[in-house]
């Protein structure tokens, strides 16, 4: 992710980011701290002993380059390691430290998650590291962490403690932190299903090198239909992020405007913060001027062209469904009636099909198979409108989570053929 010129004051940026981390349950009331190093070398940091779930902009502390403090509170007790990281890595401008459950689990097992589960997590998280234990708040902890960052690490597991992530902006650091935790959660879930499949360097490069070659154009005045679709997409993308069906750097969502055009999420933009103006109109081989469409736009277009009944599409990475995508465990929707009625038969798509320009991804979807599992890349869900797609995505993820949980109880028993035939008859499937 490339940094952009931020016009948000450090106090507000720290307050807003901490609210998001706490709301996502990726830290506790007393745990975690955020900081930003500004252009003067001053460090803005969250305070010590202040409720993280109710942080205000006035609570944020500034530690000046001469060591003096400006603020209502003392800076976080972990300030020494923030300062040490900044001294070791001049390129780092912001730091996130927290105790998200999955990464804490890795820290107490003294392991680091392998982010080669899927290309975006591996790309976003950067270089990984592990820092040996020292007492929280101590100079020794700062030295241990800074040494790991000095070796080129960007996302660091702290032994028996948590995680520290650095970035060239607080938005960048947050995205790395969120993607790192997502990879950790996916590994924990996938480990309950079977052997985890990791991507090779050539497979990672296949995803990284894809491109979208649409010419730019100035679209006409937006119709009421387009405006409504923009509103719906933003609402459901934001809801998806808050329900952890999507994360800020993962996935794409689109809606058909007419036979030749559709709206789609942009690339390299935080999904939860998207506004109606950020969405990109694609019309044939052209895309709205001044915007970059998602790199999945070609796959969306191929599906719309092949399936006139499809009016909305989402590529997403909800944790439990993604756990199935990184293993060979069979995802059987014949578990409860809702799962079968909404999802029918979920096919498995071999890795990389969605990145190709031949449109083959459309072969794996139909009225009978509105959703598919993408090997090492989450899921794809189609539907008749934005709400329909979102509903199916929720059902798919809930089903995946229920099946994973059921494996801790006993054998998963699918509904038999007689029940399936009854459902097909009752719901005209």
Core attributes:
36% helix; 429 residues; single chain; L-fuculose-1-phosphate Aldolase; 8-stranded mixed sheet; alpha+beta; globular; 17 strands
Characterize the structure shown.
- InterPro entries: Aldolase_class_II_sugar_metab, Aldolase_II/adducin_N, Aldolase_II/adducin_N_sf.
- The chain is an alpha+beta fold.
- The protein has 2 domains: 181 residues, Class II aldolase/adducin N-terminal domain (L-fuculose-1-phosphate Aldolase, 3-Layer(aba) Sandwich); 216 residues, Class II aldolase/adducin N-terminal domain (L-fuculose-1-phosphate Aldolase, 3-Layer(aba) Sandwich), CATH 3.40.225.10.
- It contains 13 helices and 17 strands.
- The strands form 2 sheets. Strands 9-13-12-11-10-14-17-16-15 form a 9-stranded mixed β-sheet, with helices on both faces.
- Helix 4 packs across helix 7 and helix 10 packs across helix 12.
- The two termini are 44 Å apart.
CATH superfamily of the largest domain: Class II aldolase/adducin N-terminal domain
How much of the sequence lies in strands comes to 15-25%
* CATH architecture group name of the largest domain: 3-Layer(aba) Sandwich
Order of helices and strands: HEEEEHEHHEHEEHHEHEEEEHEHHEEEHH
Secondary-structure-based class equals alpha+beta
The main sheet orders its strands as 9-13-12-11-10-14-17-16-15
* CATH domain class name of the largest domain: Alpha Beta
Please report the total strand number as a whole number: 17
Helix content: 25-40%
Gyration radius, in Å: 23 Å
């Amino acid at each position: 992710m490339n940094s952009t010129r931020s016009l948000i004051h450090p106090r507000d940026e720290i307050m807003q980011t901490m609210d998001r981390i706490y709301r996502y349950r990726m830290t506790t009331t007393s745990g975690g701290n955020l900081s930003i190093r500004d252009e003067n070398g001053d460090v803005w940091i969250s305070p010590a002993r202040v409720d993280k779930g109710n942080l205000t902009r006035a609570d944020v502390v500034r530690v000046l380059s001469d060591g003096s403090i400006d603020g209502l509170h003392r800076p976080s007790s972990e300030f020494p390691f923030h300062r040490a990281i900044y001294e070791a890595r001049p390129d780092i401008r912001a730091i996130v430290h927290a105790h998200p459950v999955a990464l804490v689990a890795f820290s107490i097992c003294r392991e680091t998650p392998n982010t080669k589960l899927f290309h975006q997590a591996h790309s976003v998280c950067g270089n990984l590291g592990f820092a040996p234990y020292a007492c929280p708040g101590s100079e020794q902890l700062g030295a241990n962490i800074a040494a790991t960052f000095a070796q080129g690490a960007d996302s660091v597991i702290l032994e028996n403690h948590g995680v520290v992530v650095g970035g060239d902006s607080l938005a960048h650091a947050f995205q790395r932190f969120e993607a790192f935790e997502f990879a950790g959660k996916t590994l924990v879930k996938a480990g309950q299903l079977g052997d985890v499949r990791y991507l090779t360097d050539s497979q990672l490069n296949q995803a990284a090198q894809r491109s979208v070659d649409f010419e730019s154009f100035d679209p006409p005045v937006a119709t009421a239909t387009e405006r409504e679709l923009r509103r719906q997409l933003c609402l459901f993308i934001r809801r998806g992020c808050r329900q952890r069906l999507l994360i800020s750097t993962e996935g794409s969502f689109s809606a058909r405007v007419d036979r030749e055009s559709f709206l789609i999420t942009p690339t390299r933009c935080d999904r939860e913060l998207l506004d109606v103006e950020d969405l990109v109109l694609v019309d044939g081989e052209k895309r709205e001027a001044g915007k970059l469409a998602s790199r999945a736009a070609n796959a969306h277009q191929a599906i719309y062209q092949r399936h006139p009944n499809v009016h909305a599409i989402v590529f997403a990475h909800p944790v439990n469904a993604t756990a199935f995508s990184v293993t060979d465990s069979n995802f059987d929707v014949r578990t409860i009636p809702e799962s079968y009625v909404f999802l029918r038969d979920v096919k498995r798509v071999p890795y990389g099909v969605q990145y190709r320009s031949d449109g083959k991804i459309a072969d794996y979807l139909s009225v009978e198979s509105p959703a598919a599992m993408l090997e090492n890349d989450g899921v794809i869900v189609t539907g008749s409108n934005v709400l329909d797609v979102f509903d199916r995505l929720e059902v798919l993820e809930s089903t995946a989570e229920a099946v994973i949980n059921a494996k801790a109880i006993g054998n998963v028993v699918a509904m038999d053929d007689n029940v399936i035939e009854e459902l097909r008859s009752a719901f005209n499937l």
